[in-house]
Specification:
This protein has about 280 residues and is mainly alpha-helical. It has one domain. Helices cover about 60% and strands about 0% of the residues.
Length: about 280
């Protein structure tokens, strides 16, 4: 039995990267097609002005993650399970329950991390690159500074070790996080009634778009990526931008310039311009 389980884990580790990449590509293509056919907002900047740099950042992030941890978070989860690290490994939980709890717990941790990157001025300098995109579409969901990605992976690994998260749960969370980040950053039109229903279980584009408003109090709201519940429970939920979905301005006041769409300026942005009024503890 132990030999069979080890074989399953080995196969999972080998297939995890392919599963995650395949799911990410499918979600990206699907959302790009959706927002082309039924866009929520008119584009202010063409794809040729934004997409090359956004995809360039995503490639750099992927390479850095491979350097930091060749097998990814799933490989680390397998390592922790083999060494009986973490809370879940001390309990006799059914596998399905451990997987569900892993997804929920990691989602809460990512929410808290997101709040932290808005609260600490030095971390905001890294995270604001995600917010300086001047349009909001599917590629905004893959636009994160490499240093933020590295710090986020470090926190995720610590959480996996502390939880004793099963590898299947970590893989499921990774796939969900990629897919929902792609979905809730997409410039897609969803009927109001359907959006209201979806918001009970999932962060929708209209909900998350508020977070990309140039208005500080709106930027510091709606931090969730997968589940909307943390924003409701912890008081950071905002239903809609004051100017409305079509009237709101996307971006950051200090860096609201088309020149910021270039790859090099995105990479060095943390060392340029002051944090402004956006950090919660600024």
């Amino acid at each position: 039995m132990e030999c069979i389980e080890r074989t399953v884990l080995d196969n999972l580790m080998q297939d995890a990267a392919a599963i995650r990449l395949g799911a990410a590509i499918v979600a990206l293509v699907a959302m790009a097609l959706w927002e082309t056919v039924v866009p929520r907002r008119p584009r202010l900047h063409g794809r040729r002005a934004r997409w090359p740099a956004n995809f360039g950042i995503a490639v750099i992030d992927t390479v850095i993650l491979r350097v930091i941890l060749a097998g990814g978070a799933v490989a680390f989860a397998i390592f922790c399970t083999a060494h009986r690290w973490g809370f879940f490994n001390l309990l006799a939980l059914p596998r399905w329950l451990a997987i569900v709890l892993t997804i929920v717990a990691l989602d809460l941790i990512i929410y808290l991390q997101h709040v932290m990157f808005h609260a600490v001025p030095a971390l905001w300098r890294l995270h604001r690159m995600h917010h300086t995109d001047l349009d909001f579409d599917v590629t905004t969901g893959i636009r994160f500074h490499p240093l933020e990605i590295a710090l986020s992976m470090g926190l995720k690994l610590f959480a996996i070790a502390a939880l004793g998260a099963p590898a299947a749960g970590v893989l499921a969370f990774e796939v969900l996080l990629n897919a929902t980040s792609t979905f809730n950053h997409a410039n897609v039109a969803i009927p109001t009634a359907a959006d209201a229903l979806l918001r009970r279980f999932l962060v929708t584009p209209d909900m998350h778009r508020v977070h990309h408003s140039v208005v500080v109090r709106e930027t510091n709201s709606n931090f969730g990526f997968n589940l909307p519940w943390w924003d409701w429970i912890l008081g950071t939920y905002r239903e809609a931008p004051q100017a409305g979905q079509l009237g709101m301005t996307i971006g950051i006041a200090e860096l609201n310039d088309a020149r910021e769409l270039g790859l090099w300026r995105m990479l060095v942005q943390p060392w340029r311009a002051r944090p402004g009024d956006y950090p919660i503890n600024g």
